[in-house]
């Protein structure tokens, strides 16, 4: 199984257009070692020919152009087979509208996410006015083949509990956020994609058991990161993201897990791990946990 990180930043990207935090200033001026990042999304393939997109960020056009494996063949034969969504957040779904020129789009999403994108944000309702959209309902706990079984690539979604405030009331609370466990039947190895998680509950940690690769929520270093900088009133957890550091943070829970590749993704512009010379980055290095950058590839 091949995995390409198309985008590694949280909503707004890095730098964020309206932010002058130390990290955004550093990447603009080159004052410290760091690289710009687009909004998070990955592509997965069993053969490097057919690809499956996980979340469609507003940066999807430039992300596809930066990855030749996703360039269309002659006659607009595209290599993207389907889009799988973890939630209905705009930074994970607005890219769907930029794919409206296609002959059709297959979208895997839970009933809750589908309802929000149809009657809430209207993203799918708008997209359907331009091209056919085939909705594949995602049911947590059910193993689903991704490539008709020809390459043995499958996924199993799992529910990610959240009490983050709903911007569009009315959608079902169950299935608002999911993670995906992708398995290559040939090798028996699995990857877990979990860009948004509020709490690493025992049930969520169980989903990580025996996986070979993990791409996990690295939005904020501290729970009070945004309020400390005067940029927002909500903590990381209140925004739906477990912080990396501190009691109950993801670092203390993930450090001892026997996973070959542990990678933080969906990194907010305020997170000091974006600075390659920061003390926080050195802490992750000591624990063998990577920080994703656009273009990172994993072979699982």
TrEMBL record:
Pathway this chain belongs to: Cofactor biosynthesis; pyrroloquinoline quinone biosynthesis
Domain Metallo-beta-lactamase, chain residue ranges per copy: 51-267
Alphabetical list of InterPro entries matching this protein: Metallo-B-lactamas (IPR001279), PQQ_synth_PqqB (IPR011842), RibonucZ/Hydroxyglut_hydro (IPR036866)
A family per Pfam: Lactamase_B_2
Protein keywords: PQQ biosynthesis, Transport
Keyword 4Fe-4S: no
Biological process, per Gene Ontology: pyrroloquinoline quinone biosynthetic process
Record function comment: May be involved in the transport of PQQ or its precursor to the periplasm.
Family: Belongs to the PqqB family.
Name of protein: Coenzyme PQQ synthesis protein B
Taxonomic classification: Bacteria, Bacillati, Actinomycetota, Actinomycetes, Mycobacteriales
Gene name of the encoded protein: pqqB
